[in-house]
Every structure is written in structure tokens, then in C-alpha cells.
Amino acid sequence: MFGRYRRPEPDAIEVIIGPQGSFQGDLRCTASIRVDGTVTGGHIETPANVILTEGAQVTCDIRARTVSIRGVFRGTIDADRVELLGGCQVYGALNVLSFFMDENVLLRAELNIRGAESKPVAALPAPDATADPAPKPSSSIPIVDPPSSSGRSMGGISPGRAPAEG
Fold first, then answer.
1. What whole-number distance in Å separates Cα of residue 141 and Cα of residue 120?
2. What is the domain count for the chain?
3. Alpha carbon distance 60, 85 (integer Å)
4. Does residue 52 lie in a domain region?
5. 29-70 pLDDT, tens per residue?
6. Which residues span the domain enclosing 47?
7. 140 located within any domain
8. For residues 145 and 134, what is the distance between their CA atoms, to the nearest angstrom?
9. Are 144 and 162 in contact (CB under 8 A)?
């Protein structure tokens, strides 16, 4: 989580959908994918990285190691890491191990961060309908006489009784 993260090298990207390009359907490859244009329907699937740039308009599901988004995305992402970069808009669901969100991001999605195995939480006992919800005052609390005008006590501690008059 706190280790240095390496972004994909520019020359490692083998599939590019340019700003004037559009793609409809399923896209599967073993290399990184960069989308500058439009992708609709289907899936994008790679064991590498997917980068959606500022002009990208993507409506599909993505499965990848890392997904970096600057454009508009609608769909479901399953990835080890998702980076939401300034100016992006994301609608749908994100299922991730690691998550980064920059400033100026619109996120309207369900976020599921997978981690250590979650343990079930024990259920609280149901409240007893016959029990009185208000606690009753205890008679074992001693009543202390206030000091007199001379500063002396007027009888000290008297358990459960009113102070003596005098």
C-alpha cells in the first residue's frame, strides 16, 4: 500500500484506440491498452494495464491489473489497482485490492476493496421487550448533607434518609 507503484512504460502499451477511434465489442490481449477514444459494449480484458485518457468515453466492463482513468467510464472494473485521476467521471462498480483517488473526481460507483478475509460480526442480542428501558435509581447511594452556613456539616452522611433538621 505504501510502496512505490510503477506506472506502465509508454513503450509497453501495444493497443491504442486513438481519439478519433471507436470500438464496440470484446477486446482481449496480453499487453497494456490505452483508450483515447470511445469503447462501447463488451469487455476489455488484459493481465496488464488499461489507461483511459482525458478524451476517453468508455462504457463496458474492464478486467486488468491496473486501471487508470482520466476520462469518463461507465461499467464494472475488476482490478488489482484503480487510479481515479483528476477530472475523471466514474459510474458503476469498482472491485479492487488497492484504490487511489485524486482531487476533482466524480465517483458514482459502488466501491468494493478486497483485502484480508473478513470475519463475521457477532449479532447483538435482541432487546428484551419486557425489560424497562429506564434505569432505576439505586437506594445504596448515600445522601450527603450540605454544609451549614458555618461551614460545618449538619449530620454527615445518612444513607437513604433526608438530612436532620436542626
1. 41
2. 1
3. 19
4. yes
5. 999 999 999 999 999 999 999 999 999 999 999 999 999 999
6. 10-113
7. no
8. 27
9. no
